[in-house]
Amino acid sequence: MILLAASSFVLASAETSGGEAGKSPRRRTALAQVVERCAPSAVDMMTIKAREAGRALIGWGAGTIIHEAGYVLTNDHVASEKDERQIMLQTGQAYFYETLVRMPDLDIAVVKIDADVPLAPMKLGRSNDLMVGEPVVVIGNPTGLPHTVTNGVVSALNRGDRGLIQTDAPINFGNSGGPMLNVFGELIGVVGSKEVGQEGLGYAIPIDHVRGALADWLADREKYEVRLGLTVDTFGPAVVTQVAADAPAAKAGVEVGDIIRRVGAMRVGDGVDYCIAMMGRKAGEEVVLAVERGRAAMTFAVPPIEVPPRPAEQAEGLVNGLKVVIYGGSWLQLPDFDGLTPAGGGRVATFTHTVHDSVQRLYGLVFTGYVEVPADGLYTFYTVSDDGSRLWIGDRMIVANDMTHQARERGGSIRLAAGKHPIRVTYFDAGGGRTLQVLYEGPNLPRQEIPESALFSKP
């Protein structure tokens, strides 16, 4: 291990640092050594969106290899669907990628490339102990200049409502999604944005946010799609922290404290690796877990069970559109609307914050009706709102996007049978900007605002 000073990237001596042919070992600073070691784990990304009249919109971004099987961490806004999506390794090899996980609220995505050989993953660090002033390195692809390296310091912590890392390391368009590294070459953040028109104001998503989000994503999939019935720590080694009674994992013999080292053929060195290894698992496909229990190595075959979809409602006589009830009031979070006196109401074609000309500011809305889905499967619903919103399917709250805040997105998933399901969305405006969008995606259904043709209510 190369030990580096926490206050700066110090020079490595000739006695402790061998140099490449023709390069002075005295110039191989600690910064250079970190870049040499980590650059193969950084990737450059390019997206192409076809436009009319033969034009194309080209976007640049970056990412980080987080598993040798070709899984790459990046920003959601970089990985979002385009006509062409390409990743280039440091070697110059290029691959098309598939987007597997999208977390728009955190602006995080996991994509996959199929390389011919195992890739070099970046070591994941922690962001819970970052210090203002400690040095960082950023690797990115600004304006299509691959593997561009910049460095700086942590300028501030917990910026904004997402708790971002602020840095003075130069960041430009095309750095998005790339790695922010500490002095040990560990991934501590995902570069997300810069302050437009300002120099020295760049931001990264803390890696601990990513660790927690992937755990939540996996729990969501387990809860609504297939289920092993175990929970793994994603902030270090893949230690089993909980095993549900009578779940497949418990019946197979998995115990709390077991450290998962392999899932099938996939190596697991970290709890995040376990999340990656469980992506795309289906009921009936036996999952073989190789675990370490004390000094003993053990193997368990765990068959995931399928969570049945919520049955559709046998609702008759419905018409297109939603019912909406309007409430006047000033709140900092969503109230119990059932205990309030309505100020008005009516019918609307779809979800919108503009429902009544007389209501300008400080009001709440409750939409009720049915949403129709075309096939059995897992559906993800999103609300984008300024201020708070929530979404229920039947009696289950799927999206919690409450409190006063600028426009932001939250999502949640549920397995649904084809047909119509009760939907309820609540929203309030506390002044300032106003935004309300409700989106969904599912089997053969691309992410989109819920169209009017899929919304119904009783006459």
Written description of the protein model:
The chain has 459 residues and is mainly beta. The chain has three domains: 1-219, Thrombin, subunit H; 225-306, PDZ domain (Pdz3 Domain, Roll), CATH 2.30.42; 319-457, Sandwich (Jelly Rolls). The chain contains five helices and 33 strands. The chain has helices at 30-38, 76-79, 207-224, 248-252, 271-277, and strands at 42-50, 56-67, 71-74, 84-88, 94-96, 98-103, 108-112, 135-140, 148-159, 164-167, 179-181, 187-194, 202-206, 226-227, 230-232, 240-243, 259-263, 266-267, 287-293, 296-302, 305-306, 319-320, 322-328, 344-348, 363-373, 377-386, 389-393, 396-401, 408-416, 419-429, 435-442, 445-449, 455-457. Strands 22, 23, 24, 25, 27, 28, 30 and 33 form an eight-stranded antiparallel beta sheet that branches. The protein is globular and about 80 Å long. Mean pLDDT is 87; it is low at 1-19.
List the helices and strands and how they pair.
Elements: H1 30-38, E1 42-50, E2 56-67, E3 71-74, H2 76-79, E4 84-88, E5 94-96, E6 98-103, E7 108-112, E8 135-140, E9 148-159, E10 164-167, E11 179-181, E12 187-194, E13 202-206, H3 207-224, E14 226-227, E15 230-232, E16 240-243, H4 248-252, E17 259-263, E18 266-267, H5 271-277, E19 287-293, E20 296-302, E21 305-306, E22 319-320, E23 322-328, E24 344-348, E25 363-373, E26 377-386, E27 389-393, E28 396-401, E29 408-416, E30 419-429, E31 435-442, E32 445-449, E33 455-457
Antiparallel strand pairs: 1-2, 1-4, 2-3, 3-7, 4-5, 6-7, 8-9, 8-11, 9-10, 10-13, 11-12, 12-13, 14-21, 15-16, 17-18, 17-19, 19-20, 22-33, 23-24, 23-25, 25-30, 25-33, 26-29, 26-31, 27-28, 27-30, 31-32
